[in-house]
Amino acid sequence: MDLATTLGLWLIGLGGVGSVVGLSAWLKPSSGGLQRVALACGQACLLLAIAAWVTRWRAAGHLPLFGTWESSLSLAAAVMLAALLLQRRVGGVGVWPVACGVAAALVAHGSLYDPTIYALTISERSWVVDIHAIVAWAAFGVLTTNAALALWILLSPRTAEAAGLRAGRGPAPDTRRRWLAFTLSLGFLLHTAMLASGSFYKFLLFGKAWTFDPIETLGFVAWVAYGALLHMHLFAGWEGRR
Length: 242
Known about the structure:
242 residues; mainly alpha; flat
């Protein structure tokens, strides 16, 4: 078993624990102990995901994006990085609970497949592939944190307001709702860029930009769904808990 696989197994176990503890911290925001443990688990999962990804990159000699095992490491790292950036903005436990659970599930799924390193074909040695993959990882990470933030708001809709009242300042502004709208917009833009770069690469290979294969179709369905949510936010006043 190589180092990346070992780190991935640690991520699976710790991610499961972090998810459970973090959800408990969401439901009991007054528990300082749960808050600290949830934050520690999230940070540890982030370090494990990045370490596993870098280790695989060094071993393979190229970005870890070919095969289910490499893709799972890349997606897990993207989710944890997005969670870190958002947690710094919203404070508290942030979106660590969902991020840890998703990262653990991704790596657990990837571990079921062959981790053998294969040499890249000529068509795979392209900057277009790298851009497409990086944008796809970013889109997945941002949209995962968007879903996590929405779940946090639903499970503890009055946490920020209650904290403000106890402090004698009146209802505190809930920055989570502002970042919910921002991550939706950013995720939609990144998902659009993923579809565009993938279509361009397919055109270079086959002379056709779109053929409605299952992956393209599911990507388009997700694009329409997120686009509809963004449209309702911008033009119909959907925000926050709605």
